[in-house]
Amino acid sequence: MAYRIANNMIRTTKILDVKDENSTTKIFTFKDKLCLKAKPGQFLMLWIPGVDEVPLSILNVEKDGTVSVLVKRVGDATEALHKKRINDIIGIRGPFGRGFTLKTGKLLLVGGGTGLAPLIFLAKKLAVKAEKLVFIAGAKMKEELLLLDELKNLSHKENVKVVFTTEDGSYGFKGLATKPLELTLQQGERFDMIYTCGPEKMMRKVFDLAEAYKINLEASLERLMRCAIGLCGSCVIGKYRVCRDGPVFTKEQLKEVKNEFGVFKRNFEGKKVPIE
Ligand SMILES: Cc1cc2nc3c(=O)[nH]c(=O)nc-3n(C[C@H](O)[C@H](O)[C@H](O)COP(=O)(O)OP(=O)(O)OC[C@H]3O[C@@H](n4cnc5c(N)ncnc54)[C@H](O)[C@@H]3O)c2cc1C
Ligand code: FES
């Protein structure tokens, strides 16, 4: 409990670096000691003074406590964050939630959009021991394919294969990220685990394939978050609170919320709205 309370205390820190990833996405780097123990899939709440607080997956943590996050500009808070520069002050709470479990053997990772951030953090840890790691990274077009250099670096490891997909065919395989996944599974090779993070419709398809091929799966979900510690209820899915019980859920847990997963989310008023 003491650990949890400490994690929930806001710490202010200076931005150490800001890097453009593409026209809408930046990587921010700062120091935070409590994030040293963060597991891939866990998230933090980043406070932009005078604006708002947003949940963000942890992209990387170095041994000296240097943390990075990947931030896509989608609304007021992320836009205000994008205007921040080196030495500006931000606030951090976390790390929060349940991360991915680290498995060995043959592993498949399927991600898209900003969902690639926690998967890269995970892949770097898994690649040390995995017999084989196949990472399928998707986007609508090449310009939207995030963390391309990181993914290319990862693909230089002997046990790692990275498959790029774009919907318009401007880079890698043409089509949705789930297509090469389906083809890989159809070839009959046995995998020990599928990890996924990205648009929920994509994750739902990955879940359905994992069910059909009887493979273990963990998926990291996004919902609106305010408190991040299981109190406010804004992140609810079925009987779960994504901030506390997730954001990473097992296949068994997702089966229990099958009617909502990939189908509905809740808006700022708490009303169920269809997932596009
Ligand atoms: C566990 C978790 C991890 C996340 N990791 C990342 C990440 O690594 N990088 C990244 O760029 N984004 C990530 N997000 C999404 C990010 O939190 C939202 O994009 C951000 O909160 C939007 O704030 P805003 O004020 O700029 O936009 P708003 O004006 O509030 O909303 C713009 C759009 O973003 C959606 N949105 C708004 N707030 C949230 C929220 N708290 N959670 C989810 N969706 C929201 C809205 O439905 C709307 O479509 C994550 C969300 C969760 C829950
Ligand atoms: S964000 Fe408040 S309960 Fe999850």
Note down, in words, how this protein is organized.
The protein is of the alpha/beta class and 276 residues long. It has 2 domains: 95 residues, Translation factors (Elongation Factor Tu (Ef-tu), domain 3), CATH 2.40.30.10; 169 residues, Nucleotide-binding domain of ferredoxin-NADP reductase (FNR) module (Rossmann fold), CATH 3.40.50.80. Helix content is 24%, strand content 33%. It has 8 helices and 18 strands. The chain has a 7-stranded antiparallel beta sheet. Strands 11-10-9-8-12-13-16 form a 7-stranded mixed beta sheet, with helices on both faces. A two-stranded antiparallel sheet has the order 14-15. Helix 5 runs parallel beside helix 6. The chain is globular, with a radius of gyration of 18 Å. The N and C termini lie far apart (38 Å). The relative contact order is 0.13. The mean pLDDT is 95. The site of FE2/S2 (inorganic) cluster has 12 residues, from loops.
CATH top level of the largest domain is Alpha Beta
User: What's the count of strands?
Assistant: 18
**Which second-level CATH architecture of the largest domain applies?**
3-Layer(aba) Sandwich
For this structure, the CATH topology of the largest domain is Rossmann fold
**Distance between the amino and carboxyl termini:** 38 Å
Order of strands across the biggest sheet? Answer: 4-3-7-1-2-6-5
